[in-house]
């Protein structure tokens, strides 16, 4: 009897943990959505009269962003990853990325996925570093190319003319200096320990980079996915701008998105929420959109890439954790 009771108790605790794995992420996602419900309702109302064909094209481009992310992640490792599970992991990572700041959630999901596939934690971190470096290089290359092709796409004078420059507040300068001094102190104090670990990590990254670039398929996947990922996000924004009939040329939308996403890529907010929205709306205004049209386009872009996929992505995340895929 005692053994049966113990087994029943263990099963009950396991079922409770499994339920918590699914329910808790959904509760967090619902809380995030509740905080943005006004914006979601406003965006949905504006998109109600938008062109359905262009919105469908934007949805397809949004789906392709996860395909591109999975392709780039496969290109960053030598081992062959299961395609379906890899794609599901990118979908789950995108949901986690919209809850935690600076890509922490998405990187944690991908790190766990790679470790579950048999990679050591060091090699998994190295694979994420290789993919991140390729993503930064790819985005900068695309930005330089479009700026060379369309140098007059943005007109900064539309938003800065006649506006006085605000002086920096002394308290902000003092706080920035204090943070810099604290960072320098910690760096000097733990320099040796950090240096040893950093050397080990750099050696692992260099080894993986050489191994990956000895295979043409991995090179094509890594750099093709890294270039296609921001291109697909740009296609989503172009589709939304066309759907809401904003008078902005495609070249202006492309330059606006790449400039805004590159400028806010280092801002520690969940998926660039807030920072990317503001800079992207400002960039669209410089490209020729009215403030109302720019706001509508940004809300539509967020609906397709963040808010609508959030709940399904969290469900996939919970299921993958429950099935020990993560």
Summarize the SSE layout with pairings:
Layout: H1 2-35, H2 37-47, H3 52-75, H4 83-97, H5 104-116, H6 121-149, H7 157-160, H8 170-189, H9 191-212, H10 216-243, H11 250-263, H12 275-286, H13 291-322
Helix pairs in contact: 1-13, 2-13, 3-4, 3-10, 4-5, 4-13, 5-6, 6-9, 6-10, 6-11, 10-11, 10-13, 11-12, 12-13
Structural summary, described in words:
The chain is mostly helical. The chain has one domain (52-158, 198-322). 79% of the residues lie in helices and 0% in strands. The chain has 13 helices and no strands. It has helices spanning 2-35, 37-47, 52-75, 83-97, 104-116, 121-149, 157-160, 170-189, 191-212, 216-243, 250-263, 275-286, 291-322. Helix 4 (83-97) packs across helix 13 (291-322). The longest helix has 34 residues, at 2-35.
Task: Quickly list its features.
79% helix, 326 residues, mainly alpha, globular
Share of β-strand residues: under 5%
Q: Total strand count, please?
A: 0
Backbone structural class: mainly alpha
Report the C-alpha radius of gyration, rounded.
Answer: 22 Å
Domains (count): 1
Mean pLDDT: 77
> What's the number of helices?
13
What share of residues is helical?
over 70%
């Amino acid at each position: 009897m005692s053994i049966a009771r113990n087994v029943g108790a263990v099963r009950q605790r396991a079922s409770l943990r499994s339920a918590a794995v699914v329910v808790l992420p959904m509760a967090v996602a619902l809380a995030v959505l509740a905080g943005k419900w006004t914006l979601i309702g406003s965006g949905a109302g504006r998109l109600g009269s938008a062109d359905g064909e262009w919105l469908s094209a934007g949805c397809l481009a949004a789906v392709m962003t996860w395909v591109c992310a999975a392709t780039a992640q496969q290109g960053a490792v030598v081992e062959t990853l299961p395609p379906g599970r890899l794609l599901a992991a990118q979908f789950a990572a995108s949901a986690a990325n919209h809850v935690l700041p600076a890509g922490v959630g998405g990187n944690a999901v991908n790190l766990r996925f790679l470790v579950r596939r048999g990679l050591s934690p060091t090699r998994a971190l190295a694979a994420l570093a290789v993919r991140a470096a390729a993503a930064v290089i790819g985005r900068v290359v695309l930005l330089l190319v479009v700026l060379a092709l369309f140098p007059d796409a943005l007109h900064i004078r539309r938003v800065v003319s006649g506006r006085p420059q605000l002086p920096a507040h002394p308290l902000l300068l003092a706080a920035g200096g204090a943070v810099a001094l604290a960072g320098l102190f910690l760096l000097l104090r733990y320099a040796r320990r950090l240096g040893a670990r950093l050397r080990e990590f750099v050696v692992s990254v260099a080894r993986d980079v050489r191994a990956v670039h000895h295979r043409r398929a991995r090179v094509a996947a890594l750099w093709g996915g890294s270039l296609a990922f921001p291109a697909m996000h740009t296609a989503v924004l172009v589709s939304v701008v066309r759907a809401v009939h904003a008078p902005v040329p495609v070249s202006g939308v492309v330059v606006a998105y790449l400039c805004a996403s590159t400028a806010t890529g280092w801002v520690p907010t969940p998926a660039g929420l807030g920072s990317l929205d503001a800079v992207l709306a400002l960039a669209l205004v410089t490209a020729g959109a009215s403030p109302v049209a720019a706001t509508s386009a940004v809300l539509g872009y967020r609906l397709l890439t963040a808010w609508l996929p959030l709940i399904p992505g969290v469900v996939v995340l919970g299921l993958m954790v429950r099935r020990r895929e993560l």
